[in-house]
Amino acid sequence: MNQDTSFSIPPTLPAKLASARKLVVFTGAGVSAESGISTFRDKNTGLWARFDPQQLATPEAFEANPSLVWGWYEARRRSIMEAQPNPAHRAIAEFAELIPEVVVITQNVDDLHERAGSGPVLHLHGRLDQARCFQCSRPYQHPGPPSPEAGTTEIAPPACDACGGYIRPGVVWFGESLPDGIWTEAIRHVQDCDALFSIGTSAVVYPAAQIPILALGRGATVVQVNPEPTELDDRLSHNLHGKAGVVLPALLEAVRQHQRQ
Ligand code: BJW
Ligand code: ZN
Question: pTM for the full model?
Fold first, then answer.
């Protein structure tokens, strides 16, 4: 079956969304896949199929080999800088024209939601362009784009102006807490929403994966958009199996049409 076209929008869904007061859009790597950014867990193209997360995405890995980790993240920072928002990012931003309050909660470390015009955007796992000191946490401003050799070789991280410590990527590694206040703010929005989209996430990383479950618990309309099955399938009544860049514009148009009637 062609997964791009296997979804159909349940007839009652546009009306439910059109009457929502607050929509939370929860996203993962799949929403940026059509912009050319790798997901993590795809069996063939995912980052974790090609690289070992224990050697790259933990504080211990950075302490063991800071240049390996910094060089790898600089290559990813470049691929994000070169990428453009796709129709899914744009449709999500346009939902703000139809629903009074729309909040994006993303696990992604790219800035494609912001570049598509969404706001506010809460980054549960940080942002790759917001580096800071590994020792004293002082924010670090990248002087420019990554060097062309990023991705082909190890690159020593810059030193912190304040304490001389290594600068680290602005992301949340395994075993680390989410950024101060962001998790609390995200939960506050979820507890207050009447609709939630869970888009392009395998929903296996905690605590982020609790977000759709919490929305279900409060009786919100929860819609999942994903071409593949996920942990959430059995719990949700609205599973739109397709690519985000196809499903989201169609869903936006269906809600628009309902509001015009
Ligand atoms: C498409 C598509 C298209 C493709 N359209 N869809 C409870 C139980 C077990 C373990 C734990 C637990 N609690 C904590 C843990 C440990 C750990 C964890 O969850 N481990 C599990 C993996 C077992 N969690 C942590 O360590 C977290 N910290 C923590 O818990 O601190 C304590 C704390 C508790 C409470 C409050 C506050 C603090 C930190 C987790 C940090 C995760 N970091 C990473 C790396 C970020 C840096 C980097 O970018 O390198 O974040 S891991 C990686 O996974 C990344 C992602 O944000 C995250 C989620 O992945 P995502 O987005 O779902 O991507 P994929 O690849 O998994 O899925 C993509 C999906 O898209 C697929 O379904 C595709 O089908 C789909 N798709 N094309 C739509 N076109
Ligand atoms: Zn420092």
Answer: 0.96
